[in-house]
Specification:
It contains 20 helices and 19 strands. The longest helix has 29 residues. The relative contact order is 0.15.
């Protein structure tokens, strides 16, 4: 397969951090790394509780800056996106880590909701709902982590929270985190994973696109900064290259494109291309990465009503509209049965939802060029809104040809508000369609991060269809499989391990390697599976049609941080209003 589309670098607004300041920051981190490893669990819990307070205090300023960066009006319901994908995710990460460390103090290890061995011998670990609050907030949703098939249940229990076990050999380390430029919670949660799951102190280099959020991360994480456990840096590729090559950096974590990963692992230019062809990495530092994905949405034919079609038209459109489409979890490819009677009706529902969506500012570099590349390659592309210079309308490309193996829609991530659709010619049997869809996305579609499957509950009353769905979940080579909802839900839940499907070769890295989030501190994870209702009673807060998302998510942020039950009634009222 070809590489993901290269995203040009933003010039940024902050002056690059000078090299002497970078050296000083790394020296401080190195000096504090041993003390961090020696910090006991009760002290870490207190630190997490303090971080909940400081992050909550900084949240309004954080959200205001993020919205301004993305051209969102402060009175717009779209502010809900920034509350939800910024402070809410970070605060949930902090709260769940504190709960896990409480369990370690009380019982000696993390306590996920359930651990079991499936009939095929694979260990499944329940990670959602984590408690009664999750049952209220995520009614009908569940999630599990599936481990590598070589791992027994006993071994899985023994490895949970390994760094917190008596006798574990602590290895102080300094991690470089190269932050993402689209969602403001990604870099902070990556920092938390390095610190609390891997025992490493962190230098965070912000992406120039969203580097203005750095002052708010520094304020929210002031206890980490003051303790010498975290330092922030600014700048583009030159600063990044200086840091990745620095002797005081032990490990690297990057969120970005596969081109960024290749530049770190193999170098740039002709020499880098030659190294990649030969499989010769240029660094001995371990690299973990969360990269791009052409996120498929597999639509299982079934007895869908008009109301079902309207709901999932909004569902699919929202997967594209969120954050103006600048998400690696955005829906990129709708996969349908060519002969399904309701195929065109579903596409019409998606079209109608796009027409109702508010147009967005294309804040991410290179978006217009990527959009033009996709629409020029497909005469059938349909866009919904103005396409003047500097604007990027939400775009649907229906009727892609599944036999064109090099179609850009199958090989490159658009990373803007574009989604394609393809109809597969298979026998009318739903099980055969599911099997063919899995083969198609595994073998023909770039990326291994995550996939969504939409399936009507009445379809699953057929034992053969239910078995085919189980088989599909098992066979999909993706790090996360979400049933009936947006892949971004799995990212935001935090308790499911998040990352690409394991095993990609560095010369074909796909969506990356390693994991983050994972607040039960599991090891040897193969994939996460998240299940939700086919339709919820009211629109989920991540639907672009949700009318009170900005109010609901602001209240949710306070509730997560304080666990104050007095917040719940107003929060639930906003949830019900939709």
């Amino acid at each position: 397969m070809t590489d993901m589309l290269t995203v040009p670098e933003s010039a940024g607004e902050m002056p690059p951090t000078p090299t002497d300041a970078l050296d000083e920051a790394l020296a401080t981190l190195r000096a504090r790394s041993h003390a961090w490893c020696a910090t006991d669990v009760p002290a870490r819990i207190e630190l997490l509780r303090e971080l909940l307070r400081t992050t909550l205090d900084e949240a309004p300023r954080w959200v205001a800056t993020a919205a301004a960066t993305k051209g969102i009006r402060r009175d717009s319901p779209l502010m809900g996106e920034e509350w939800g994908s910024g402070p809410a995710v970070v605060l949930r990460n902090l709260a769940l880590l504190a709960d896990t460390l409480d369990d370690i103090v009380a019982t000696g290890r993390p306590q996920p909701p359930g651990v079991r061995t499936a009939a095929d011998g694979q260990v499944h670990i329940d990670v959602l709902p984590t408690d009664v609050r999750d049952r209220l907030l995520f009614t009908g949703f569940s999630a599990e982590a599936r481990l590598d098939r070589s791992v027994s249940e006993q071994a899985a229990l023994a490895s949970m929270g390994r760094i917190y076990r008596d006798g574990h050999d602590k290895q102080p380390g300094v991690a470089l985190v190269l932050g993402a430029g689209n969602i403001t919670s990604i870099a902070p949660t990556d920092v938390l994973y390095q610190l609390f799951a891997l025992d490493r102190v962190v230098l965070l280099k912000l992406n120039p696109v969203t580097e203005r959020i750095g002052e708010h991360i520094a304020a929210a994480f002031r206890p980490l900064v003051d303790a010498g456990l975290l330092r922030l840096a600014y700048g583009g590729a030159q600063v990044g290259r200086y840091l990745t090559d620095h002797d005081e950096v032990d490990t690297i974590h990057v969120t970005g494109s596969s081109a960024t990963y290749d530049a770190i692992a193999f170098g740039t230019g002709e020499e880098g291309e030659q190294r990649k062809r030969q499989g010769r990495v240029r660094t001995d530092k371990p690299i973990s990465a969360e990269l791009g994905n052409i996120t498929p949405v597999i639509v299982v034919p079934g007895p869908w009503s008009d109301a079902d079609l309207a709901y999932h038209g909004d569902n699919i459109a929202s997967m594209v509209v969120n954050n103006a489409g600048f998400n690696c979890v955005a829906a990129r490819l709708i996969i349908q049965h060519r002969a399904w009677a309701r195929r065109q009706a579903l596409l019409d529902a998606v079209r109608g939802s796009f027409r109702r969506a508010e147009q967005r500012v294309p804040f991410y570099p290179g978006a217009r060029e990527r959009w033009e590349r996709f629409v020029h390659a497909h005469r059938q592309a349909e866009w919904f809104g103005p396409a003047d210079e500097g604007e990027i309308p939400f775009t649907l490309i229906p009727e892609l040809d599944p036999t064109v193996t090099d179609d850009v829609a199958f090989t490159e991530e658009a990373f803007c508000g574009v989604v394609g659709e393809v109809g597969l010619d298979t026998p009318r049997s739903i099980p055969e369609f599911l099997d063919a869809s899995v083969d198609f996305v595994n073998d023909r579609v770039e990326g291994t991060l995550g996939v969504t499957i939409l399936v009507h509950p009445r379809s699953l009353e057929d034992p053969e269809v239910a078995a085919a769905l189980d088989r599909a979940i098992d066979r999909l080579r993706y790090g996360t499989v979400v049933i009936n909802h947006w892949l971004g839900v799995a990212f935001g839940l935090i308790s499911p391990p998040w990352g690409a499907y394991p095993g990609s070769d560095p010369t074909d890295i796909q969506s990356g390697c390693g994991m983050v989030h994972n607040t039960y501190l599991l090891e040897d994870v193969e994939k996460s599976v998240v299940r939700g209702p086919f339709r919820t009673a009211v629109p989920p807060v991540w639907f672009h049609t949700h009318r009170t998302a900005h109010r609901l998510l602001r209240k949710l942020v306070r509730y997560i941080a304080t666990d104050d039950p007095r917040i719940l009634p107003g929060l639930l009222v906003d949830k019900l209003r939709g």
